[in-house]
């Protein structure tokens, strides 16, 4: 599996680099650094003030942990209600259509109601770390020629474009615009995760983290925490830290998340603040809920044992959980007892020998097959070819049992 993943990753990077070179007119000039799959290069982070960033990283960690825990809690409740009421298979396509309609409606109407046109920066195409920020980046919407709608540019872009635009500072959005954008994305992320809507888990968290970083920048600028010359660098640093806090708040990832954040943003010099943010977000979120992946495993009832014992179960012994009135079958059993046992609703039964020792388990489906083919222990009715009736049915019984065993797998 490890080599399969490695091979697929190599092919993906090669293909991305090849098409990136073809897109720029020279397929031999391939970007092996993988810049095409990153969300922007923060070259100014080398001037970051680590002393001022550490307290902010702790603050962002607390906010990310609280937001992540609230997301997991609310999403679990929504999924529980969904499982309770959406009991038919044809409900799921309708649910997907409903979420798609509501998302498209909100994303279209909000920029229309809150239209705030801004002039497109001149020139319309400018170089940004090797990529061209063209006029297609901006969404004109209902604005005049030469102007763009910031909210429409955010809402109508793909997830990767949203992250790139916020990190690169390509569009100018007010703090209230970011608040609205954050609330809308957070609401739909919370309610749609777990449905057939392919919203994902990672990129929505990065988008919310970018908004959280921008809003934190506005707040710190209001109180004068950073000097005027530090604000541009601080904004990019805070966006990276907010991404880490938001993702760690609900995924509860640690070292791997730190590597992902530093690799996508190319900010290896922010290792210490990023690590502080991730650890604080993990500790804060863990006080309220499990991680998103653990919660998903628990919700879908996957039979996975943890490597630790939950606190309420430490003093519980097996005797308290076992049933004293055991429903079992003997190696040679009567039809009356088999019928009585099957009516109990169990899925399998222990089989005992004459001494009362357990010699195995038999699934309920196997018992049904044996009864269907009348594969009784004693049946010596002779057939015309000299074989017994039980012997003539043996191949069919074995085939039926094999099919039932494969179905259980």
Please provide a written account of the structure.
The protein is mainly alpha-helical. The protein is 57% helix and 6% strand. Strands 5-6-7 form a 3-stranded mixed beta sheet. A two-stranded antiparallel ribbon has the order 1-4. Helix 2 packs across helix 6, helix 8 packs antiparallel against helix 9 and helix 9 packs across helix 10.
| Inertia-based shape | elongated
Instruction: Tell me the helix content.
Output: 55-70%
Number of strands: 7
Give the termini distance in whole angstroms: 22 Å
Give the tally of structural domains: 3
Largest sheet strand order: 5-6-7
Flag low-confidence runs. Answer: 32-37, 128-132, 381-385
Let me know the largest β-sheet. 3 strands, mixed
Q: Helical region count?
A: 15
Q: CATH top level of the largest domain?
A: Mainly Alpha
- Could you tell me the mean pLDDT? 79
What topology emerges from the helices and strands here?
Elements: H1 2-23, H2 50-85, H3 91-113, E1 118-119, E2 126-128, E3 131-133, E4 147-148, H4 150-155, H5 159-168, H6 175-192, H7 203-223, H8 231-251, H9 255-265, H10 271-286, H11 292-299, H12 318-321, E5 329-330, H13 335-342, E6 348-352, E7 358-363, H14 364-372, H15 389-408
Parallel strand pairs: 5-6
Antiparallel strand pairs: 1-4, 2-3, 6-7
Q: Key features?
A:
mainly alpha; Clc chloride channel; 3 domains; three-stranded mixed β-sheet; 15 helices; 57% helix
Condensed summary:
By secondary structure, this protein is mainly α. The protein contains 15 helices and 7 strands.
